[in-house]
């Protein structure tokens, strides 16, 4: 099943999104891989009207999000139209230009 | 130290590290020459030709011959320029030092500091810093044109799947969050473009010299929220150059020198790879850079007469002025819209029209403009007197003067992204 993976430091408890060999906060080299619940809050949102490349033109407009996840890390993702900062959201996934990406919807 | 020994120990942040330059360098170096080619959309020239013309014009401005310049520094973004090794020979310069670095915005001020360093180290005497690129007709910053064929590497890799790969998109989350956190409005921010267009209308070199209104900005098409087309700078072809040497040598040059009080180079927020990942994104690297800039310059923002706050977008001007302390945190919207930044205002900003109107150069034209302001010789349409200097009227109506009265201190606030910035304070010599 598709899920958002993140890492948690066994030493200091810090969490982060992109996989690393050691903790960027305390340097401990024992990060644990976890799967997120998919719940979070919109930290920032921008709607892209003018796609940056020809390949993405057919997708515009699309909504880019920064999401503060319940587990304490922040990630970039796509979102459904109309989301605003502070909205509670939950992750789903969609295909975008050949990749599977997290796409958030408003949480009920 | 092994990772387990480091356990529990926090790595130092930039603001906690003593990175200040020695204060004995204050006013020891100067910018003595500035030059540029035409700002255009379609130069019809190679970047090699743009670079050589810009350096030649700067040498002529300073009253220097090719044999007087023995150092070259340039910057390029994704191999969009020609390196010093080709440019030097065309100009008859034999370098004792050269270096071509990667980078776009915020590089200018950093290279000025590096030029001081290499001269101080005895490696050369006089350094020409140049930026030459066909930012419209060749390698466009937004990802289209030739840039579309350039491989995506490094930090840019993670943004591509999301369609997050142009500067406007990179910075937009910070701008949106600033509006949310502090109530900054699109109308306030549009005033940055309005005011810079007023300045450009008094600059015969400006690519976009037409004055615009808040309504013009807000009714232009949306690129990505909150950026309308007119919130974005103008992709430009140009070559630009500044010449740095020691202040005692500057006395032999043609103009009043612009003495360098302090530089900060590519100062960063705690995470610069993906700046948005942690912490408040409505605060930018200036928060850290100001802790170096003002003590080194031995002046504060309230003493600065003219600012050059990087305007890749209207919002970048605002966020930097705010975080360098020209107004209280969160009051940037009021600062940029209350008339302070006008030529007739308390502290004019980007008096050439900046990236939004004069032309996009990755920051160097804003330093060139402040050098001219410090000489009291802005190249506007005012009449030239018998001594060859313009007689400035200080009538700032459209098509008129753009020289600010009695400029003694200027600040340049360079921007790479929300996570990285550079700065420069200069004084009239």
From TrEMBL, chain A:
<dbReference type="InterPro" id="IPR002878">
    <property type="entry name" value="ChsH2_C"/>
</dbReference>
<feature type="domain" description="ChsH2 rubredoxin-like zinc ribbon">
    <location>
        <begin position="6"/>
        <end position="32"/>
    </location>
</feature>
<protein>
    <submittedName>
        <fullName>OB-fold domain-containing protein</fullName>
    </submittedName>
</protein>
<dbReference type="Pfam" id="PF01796">
    <property type="entry name" value="OB_ChsH2_C"/>
</dbReference>
<dbReference type="InterPro" id="IPR012340">
    <property type="entry name" value="NA-bd_OB-fold"/>
</dbReference>
<dbReference type="InterPro" id="IPR022002">
    <property type="entry name" value="ChsH2_Znr"/>
</dbReference>
<feature type="domain" description="ChsH2 C-terminal OB-fold">
    <location>
        <begin position="34"/>
        <end position="80"/>
    </location>
</feature>
<dbReference type="InterPro" id="IPR052513">
    <property type="entry name" value="Thioester_dehydratase-like"/>
</dbReference>
<dbReference type="Pfam" id="PF12172">
    <property type="entry name" value="zf-ChsH2"/>
</dbReference>
């Amino acid at each position: 099943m598709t899920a958002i993976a993140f890492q948690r430091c066994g030493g200091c408890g810090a969490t982060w999104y992109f996989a690393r060999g050691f903790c960027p906060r305390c340097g401990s080299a024992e990060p644990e891989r976890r799967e997120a619940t998919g719940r979070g809050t919109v930290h920032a949102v921008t709607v892209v009207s003018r796609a940056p490349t020809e390949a993405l033109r057919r997708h515009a407009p699309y909504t880019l999000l920064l999401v503060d996840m319940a587990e304490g890390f922040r990630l970039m993702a796509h979102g459904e139209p109309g989301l605003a900062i502070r909205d509670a959201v939950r992750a789903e996934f969609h295909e975008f230009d050949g990749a599977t990406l997290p796409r958030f919807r408003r949480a009920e | 130290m092994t990772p387990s020994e480091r356990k529990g120990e926090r790595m130092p942040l930039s603001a906690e590290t003593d990175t200040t330059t020695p204060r004995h360098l204050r006013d020891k170096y100067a910018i003595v020459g500035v030059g540029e080619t035409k700002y255009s959309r379609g130069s019809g020239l190679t970047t090699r030709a743009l670079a050589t013309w810009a350096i030649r014009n700067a040498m002529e401005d300073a009253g220097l011959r090719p044999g007087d310049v023995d150092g070259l520094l340039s910057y390029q973004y994704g191999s969009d320029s020609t390196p010093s090794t080709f440019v030097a020979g065309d100009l008859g310069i034999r370098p004792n030092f050269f270096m071509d670095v990667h980078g776009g915005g915020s590089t200018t001020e950093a290279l000025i500091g590096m030029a001081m360093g290499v001269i101080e180290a005895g490696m050369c005497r006089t350094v020409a810093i140049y930026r030459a690129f066909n930012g419209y007709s060749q390698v466009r910053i937004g990802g289209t044109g030739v840039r579309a064929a350039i491989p995506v590497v490094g930090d840019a890799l993670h943004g591509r799947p999301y369609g997050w790969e142009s500067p406007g998109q990179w910075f937009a989350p910070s701008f949106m969050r600033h509006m949310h956190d502090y109530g900054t409005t699109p109308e306030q921010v549009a005033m940055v473009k309005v005011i810079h267009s007023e300045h450009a209308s008094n600059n015969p070199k400006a690519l976009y010299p037409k004055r615009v209104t808040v309504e013009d900005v807000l009714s232009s098409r949306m690129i990505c929220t909150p950026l309308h087309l007119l919130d974005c700078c103008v992709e430009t072809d140009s070559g630009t150059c500044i010449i740095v040497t020691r202040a005692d040598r500057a006395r032999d040059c043609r103009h009043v020198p612009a003495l360098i009080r302090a530089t900060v180079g590519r100062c960063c927020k705690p995470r610069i790879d993906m700046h948005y990942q942690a912490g408040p994104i409505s605060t930018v690297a200036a928060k850290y850079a100001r802790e170096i800039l003002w003590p080194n310059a031995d002046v504060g923002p309230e003493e600065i007469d003219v600012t050059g706050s990087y305007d890749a977008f209207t919002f970048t001007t605002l966020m930097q002025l705010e975080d360098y302390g020209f107004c209280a945190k969160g009051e940037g919207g009021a600062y940029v819209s209350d008339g302070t930044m006008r030529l007739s205002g308390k502290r004019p900003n980007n008096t050439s029209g900046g990236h939004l109107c004069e032309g996009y150069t990755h920051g160097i034209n804003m330093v060139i403009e402040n050098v001219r302001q410090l000489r009291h010789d802005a190249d506007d349409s005012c009449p030239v007197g018998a001594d060859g200097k313009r007689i400035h009227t200080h009538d700032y109506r459209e098509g008129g003067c753009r020289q600010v009265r009695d400029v003694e201190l200027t600040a340049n606030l360079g921007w790479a992204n929300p996570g990285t910035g550079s700065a420069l304070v200069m004084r009239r010599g």
